[in-house]
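User: Assemble these into one structure.

Assistant: Restating your components, then the assembled model:
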Amino acid sequence: GDSVTQMEGPVTLSEEAFLTINCTYTATGYPSLFWYVQYPGEGLQLLLKATKADDKGSNKGFEATYRKETTSFHLEKGSVQVSDSAVYFCALRGTGFQKLVFGTGTRLLVSP
Amino acid sequence: DARVTQTPRDKVTEMGQEVTMRCQPILGHNTVFWYRQTMMQGLELLAYFRNRAPLDDSGMPKDRFSAEMPDATLATLKIQPSEPRDSAVYFCASGLDQGPEQFFGPGTRLTVL
């Protein structure tokens, strides 16, 4: 079945450092790909998405490119802030109506 | 500002008691999902509905958990009897089956003593 694998955390960075959180997926067909973010004490919220190969999703300085050849959707940000500290989930949704498949989440800790 | 709402936000109960969690999906959304989040298991899908009909509840312990949608504005998740291992944060999410995104509520933090 479909699955998502993302890097183990926590990822610990200093403010203004470059961020990469790796995500790879296994799916049949052409899934849509997502990054969700969960701030402490809150529910998940959509950060960005890409619905077809080579699409780049972007929001709040974060970016991820849908790479079908490497089945990847890595999350990047050029300069992280303390307020970016959260848990980040990579997810996919298959073609047609299907449930979201989430990765295990990666905790990001940014220190001043 | 349309949001998914969940009640209660926090619930502390004793083992053996019945627990009911409620969710109001965003108006017009026709899919509803229940998730459970724990440190050990991460985010687990318990059940989901489309147009109020249950499509998949294979993630749910059948003997004690039940999920229903009595109408389009209310989804419920019930645990009877509750056990300490049910302690977790339970999230509801809603969406449109033609759209890829799910919108999450703030969660219900359940503690079973």
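The mean pLDDT of chain B is 93.
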